[in-house]
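Entry 14. Ran structure prediction on the chain below.
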Amino acid sequence: MKFKIGQIVTKENNTQAAIACNQAGDRTIEEQDGQYVIVPNSSPTVPTVREKVRALEIKTGLTRAVRELVLAENSGASNYAKQQAQKIETLAAPLRRSEQ
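Output, structure tokens:
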């Protein structure tokens, strides 16, 4: 049986509907007004710039203070570390402007 978004799920077809929703990956079953209905998955939230910066800081270990040291003249840091630090700094630039 093919299950579509908007379709009401009954006790008899609940298991098959759940399997179909999981296989499709773009829908789920939700209770609405006492009935179970197949609905589209909610859109994933887009991370904010602050969240993206924080994720990169955690991934690379390049916190703001460390980036300042890495990007300092004659720091001795590798080109890779400098590139990663600059990437985060570029992403964080709008945050710096809003802090002023």
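Residues 70 and 78 are 8 Å apart (CA to CA). Will compare against last week's run tomorrow.
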